[in-house]
Amino acid sequence: MSKKVFVFFPDGVGLRNFAFTDFKSIGEEKGFDITYWNNTIFSLKDNLDFDEVKIEDHTSHPLLPLYSRARKRAELNVSRDKFNDAVYPTYKFPFNYKGLKNIFKSIYIKCLIGLYSSEKGIIKLRNKINQLERSASKYKYCKTQLETHKPDLIFCTTQRATQSISALLAAKDLGIPTVAFVYSWDNVPKAMQVVETDYYCVWSDLMKKEVLQYYPFVKEEQVFVTGTPQFEPHYNTSLKQTRDVFFKAYNLDTNKKYICYSGDDETTSPLDQYYLEDLTNAVRSLNAEGENLGIIYRKCPVDFTPRYNAVIEANKDIIEVLDPIWKQVGGQWNQILPTKEDFKMLYNVCEHSEFVTNVCSSTVFDFVAHNKPCIYYNYEQPQLKKGIRDIGQNYKYVHFRSMPSKDAAVFCEDKNHLKDLVKQILDGKLSNVEAGSKWYKIVVGENPTKASQHIWEAIEFILKK
User: How far apart are CA 33 and CA 93, in angstroms?
Assistant: First the structure.
């Protein structure tokens, strides 16, 4: 009899990896009976004709947000002291003291942090969170669903969603094995492991080492190195369009060479529009010297700020806007969901751009997969003032320490050097692809095309135990 696996979406971030890739078909080829346990407002049944069980009760305990924030800060405090490293406090968001309610919440969180900022304290804090969530109606609701459908295993598509806690607790209390996928390359050092599951799937040996380093309660045999499906579409050549077809589809000029500017979210790069403006000025200057260049601006999918509009409007002759093909199905950032069509667009943006520029984004790996370079901006803008975050902080984060060498990306340390760096890349005199490919393997793993297969092999192994 085939084993029934619930692929659990606590929020929409996992859709890209586990609904729109070949993940499901690979699992079915291995004989698994796959049902999507869906906590999102995106209907997998209506949109993709996938079997799904919808979670309609989204009730969490009222204190969960406070305890979750305290847990994260307590873990960062422990990492700061344990590793004697000042980087960990920079992951914290400031407290909110606007209004009596926010003042009370902030004081309450600070009291919890004071009580629980130790390794033993964190375990107590996690146990308290679990206790709170077991008392919420969603826990009983999910437990009833599991008793009805009787899955053999729950695969949770992200480890960082508080909406998953009660559902996974229900599974564990029923003796159903649980597996969590660590979603992003920077998540482990940032204390974003919200859930505790029986097993974890991680991208690489590096990420496995981090999980064991930051979470002593996790044992080595609980962690499987599988890779991530995130980059698998870059190796699907059926997505590739010819240059002429792609350019015609998006009204690009076939006589021009295009540089991709990959936008960032406002938290990561609050002055991002000025880096786009700097690139535009460099391109305009190079065009005056005989080049014929344009810019493809691809925004961060969850950024709906108007901050780029003035730069784009003033440079219509250079900038072509190719918005990601995502759909907003709710008001929160994790309810802006990717579509399968976006895989094709991103593949061809990478394939037909000369290179990419951005602030510290993982698109460096998307482009390295197509043997294309990346420029990282790493200089302050004159508009920087108190209260605005300096982007230089990003490159000090732990996940950037995985770079095998400084030339794993082309760093622009001075606005005045940007034009020359662009020219050198265009002329083939400068590239990070060789070192960037080594970095890619360190972060993403040795077999980026086999991640879905490896995850199912891990599930198969767990179910045979």
Answer: 42
Within its chain, how far is the Cα of 55 from the centroid? 24
Cβ(293)–Cβ(286) under 8 Å?
A: yes
Could you read off the pLDDT of 385-419 as tens digits, one per residue?
877 778 888 999 999 999 999 999 999 999 999 99
Domain boundaries, the chain: 4-60+136-227+450-464, 64-131, 233-444
**Is there a contact between 32 and 1 (Cβ–Cβ < 8 Å)?**
no
Overall fold of domain 4-60+136-227+450-464: Rossmann fold (3.40.50)
Residue 391's nearest CA partner among 302, 261, 267, 308 is 267
**What does the pLDDT look like over 70-101, one tens digit per residue?**
999 999 999 999 999 999 999 998 999 999 99
Enumerate the H helices of 325-406 as residue ranges.
Answer: 340-352, 363-368
Distance CA(293)–CA(311), nearest Å, equals: 17
Q: Supply 278's token pair.
A: 């700097």
Pairing of strands 153-156, 326-328: unpaired
Report d(CA 250, CA 322) in Å as an integer.
Answer: 8
Domain 4-60+136-227+450-464 identical in fold to domain 233-444: yes
The one-letter amino acid code at 39 reads: N
Under DSSP, is residue 72 helix (H, G, I), strand (E, B) or coil? helix
The dotted CATH code for 233-444 is 3.40.50.2000
